[in-house]
């Protein structure tokens, strides 16, 4: 093994799990009570990072109202959190190797608490965004760290259980996050979401410090850090996300600011790609895209997550803004996802080595398309039917969510050596998170355009010369609405119906995209493992799969 390989393995230790079987330096294993407390501490830290992605989606309207900004700014607050989270993943392993995993985890939890404190106290959008960026970046650093620190304390025979326990947090953004976030906003006030984020990270950090601080000495990495690549990536993502967030409000390219941000973002991204392909120690191994399976699997994973998270975000906000749902009721719509998601993930993990991964991915994409088709035919805004009409489609989405990550991860990791697999997981996971950052503003803009189109079309047809228009006005007159009041009431109903039709269009568009990805996956090379993996290989594969799932 060359010196370059040695340096790379050292820098990627938190993700490769090469050191999971090593005994803590000079110390015996934790006793039973200490072991339980460590599980609580590390799982709490992992849940907090992921909970902040889903919980905020259901309280975003409360936050924008309190900050005195328009509802369109809700996507800013969420997407900059995702961007910060994505940027943190490529640097987590290097920082852990340089300063030590325990020390980095402690600093990250303290910084996350500080960011939460800033969000809870400020009433200015700029400072609130800064707090979310701090939350996202330092929270992202802890995702691989918490898994590594937890699994090191598990005996070999129990590591699979430890991975399963840690991966349960991956469901929180889609199930309990919106529900609990909505309950907190309705019952305690939305600020309490951030008040609670101050003591809980401190509790996690305190327990980890007491139990692990002197057990794992810092490792000094000899691998240089790609500072130029990191700066270029941060500039590119920040500028392009700003264009997407503010483009609709600033009238896109009629704004000199948006044009400047777009040019800066494209130039920085171009320079980043050129630099990464030429440097000896790249921040991200972009050469992996030369492999067909990795390229197709990563595109499929990122687009799938973009559509799924974007649809959920648009739905949560529109249920509250258009139909008047409380935050808790809007979050409760997603609870059926819980029933199938994790069991199906376990099932797919059992069968992924028996069948071609392309077949499993294709079937999952077809199931997603079916879910989108069914959902586009339901009226989410009829209060008497939202649960009964959407129950089965949400159960179907839970089935799709559970079957998404395992076969897709198997597809894009196929044919890669262990070192390349960890690099692929980092790059693929980062692009999936970036898909989440693009999701809400992109689908939000498309929804607004389609809703405006339908409203214009409805306004043209609802006239005094149209039979349906005359009947609608007559019904309003019978209900006691006359003259301008009847016209205003009809305009409100028209806008609400246009919003429903616009949301239906989003689900139909997503259906066609999922069908396209079901066809695209067959351009990948066949993936069917010829031998049953050893226990060590299976544990490593499962650990990498759980990293792809989060957040």
Tell me what the structure shows.
With 551 residues, this protein is an all-alpha fold. It folds into 2 domains: 225 residues, Up-down Bundle (Growth Hormone, Chain: A), CATH 1.20.1250.20; 253 residues, Growth Hormone, Chain: A (Up-down Bundle), CATH 1.20.1250. Helix content is 74%, strand content 0%. Helix 14 runs parallel beside helix 20. The longest helix is centred in the C-terminal third of the chain and has 44 residues.
Q: Care to give the gist of this entry?
A:
The protein has 551 residues and is mostly helical. It has two domains: 1-225, Up-down Bundle (Growth Hormone, Chain: A), CATH 1.20.1250.20; 299-551, Growth Hormone, Chain: A. The protein is built from 23 helices and no strands.
Notable features of this structure?
23 helices, 551 residues, Growth Hormone, Chain: A, 0% strand, 74% helix, mainly alpha
Question: According to CATH, what is the class of the largest domain?
Answer: Mainly Alpha
Number of separate strands: 0
Query: Strand-residue fraction?
Result: under 5%
- Under the CATH scheme, the architecture of the largest domain is Up-down Bundle
- Classify the secondary structure makeup into a structural class: mainly alpha
Integer average pLDDT? 78
Radius of gyration: 24 Å
- Which stretches of 5+ consecutive residues score pLDDT under 50? 1-26, 380-387
Largest sheet features: none
The arrangement of helices and strands along the chain is: HHHHHHHHHHHHHHHHHHHHHHH
General shape = globular
Number of helices: 23
Helix percent band: over 70%
Oligomer: single chain
Which fold does the CATH topology of the largest domain refer to?
Growth Hormone, Chain: A
* Total number of distinct structural domains: 2
Terminal residue distance? 34 Å
């Amino acid at each position: 093994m060359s010196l370059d390989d040695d340096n790379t393995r050292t820098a990627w230790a938190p993700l490769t799990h090469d050191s999971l079987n090593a005994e803590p330096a000079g110390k015996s294993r934790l006793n039973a009570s200490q072991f339980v407390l460590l599980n609580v501490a590390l799982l709490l830290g992992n849940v907090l990072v992921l909970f902040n992605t889903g919980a905020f989606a259901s309280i975003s309207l409360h936050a924008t109202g309190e900050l005195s900004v328009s509802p369109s700014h809700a996507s800013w607050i969420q997407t900059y959190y995702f961007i910060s989270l994505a940027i943190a993943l490529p640097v987590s392993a290097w920082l852990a190797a340089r300063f030590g995993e325990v020390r980095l985890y402690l600093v990250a939890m303290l910084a996350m608490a500080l960011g939460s404190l800033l969000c809870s106290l400020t009433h200015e959008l700029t400072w609130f965004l800064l707090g979310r960026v701090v939350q996202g970046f330092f929270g992202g650093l802890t995702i691989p760290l918490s898994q590594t620190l937890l699994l090191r304390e598990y005996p070999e025979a129990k590591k699979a259980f430890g991975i399963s326990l840690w991966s349960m947090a991956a469901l929180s953004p889609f199930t309990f996050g919106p529900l609990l976030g909505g309950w907190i906003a309705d019952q305690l006030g939305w600020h309490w979401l951030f008040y609670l984020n101050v003591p809980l990270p401190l509790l996690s950090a305190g327990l980890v410090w007491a139990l692990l601080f002197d057990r794992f000495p810092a490792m000094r990495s000899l691998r240089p850090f790609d500072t130029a690549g990191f700066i270029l990536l941060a500039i590119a993502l920040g500028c392009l996300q700003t264009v997407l967030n503010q483009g609709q409000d600033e009238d896109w390219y009629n704004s000199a600011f948006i044009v400047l941000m777009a040019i800066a973002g494209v130039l920085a991204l171009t320079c980043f790609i050129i630099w990464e392909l030429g440097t000896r120690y790249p921040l991200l191994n972009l050469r992996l895209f030369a492999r067909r399976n990795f390229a197709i699997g990563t595109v499929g994973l990122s687009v799938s997550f973009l559509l799924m998270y974007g649809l959920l975000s648009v739905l949560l906000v529109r249920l509250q803004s258009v139909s008047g749902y409380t935050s808790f009721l809007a979050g409760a719509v997603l609870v059926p996802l819980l029933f199938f998601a994790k069991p199906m993930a376990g099932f797919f993990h059992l069968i992924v080595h028996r069948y071609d991964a392309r077949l499993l991915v294709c079937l999952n994409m077809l199931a997603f398309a079916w879910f989108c088709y069914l959902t586009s035919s339901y009226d989410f805004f009829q209060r008497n039917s939202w649960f009964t009409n959407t129950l089965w489609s949400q159960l179907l989405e839970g089935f799709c969510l559970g079957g998404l990550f395992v076969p897709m991860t198997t597809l894009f990791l196929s044919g890669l050596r262990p070192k390349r697999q960890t690099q692929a997981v980092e790059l693929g996971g980062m692009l999936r998170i970036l898909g989440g950052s693009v999701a809400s503003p992109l689908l939000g803009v498309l929804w607004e355009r389609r809703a405006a189109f339908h409203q214009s079309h409805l306004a043209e047809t609802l006239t005094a010369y149209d039979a349906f228009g005359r009947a609608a006005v007559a019904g309003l007159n019978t209900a006691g609405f006359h003259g301008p009041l009847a016209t205003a009431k009809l305009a409100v109903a028209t806008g609400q119906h246009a919003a429903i039709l616009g949301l239906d269009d989003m689900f139909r568009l997503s259906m066609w995209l999922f069908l396209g990805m079901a066809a695209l996956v067959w351009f990948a090379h066949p993936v069917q493992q010829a031998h049953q993996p050893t226990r060590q290989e299976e544990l490593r594969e499962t650990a990498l799969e759980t990293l792809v799932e989060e957040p």
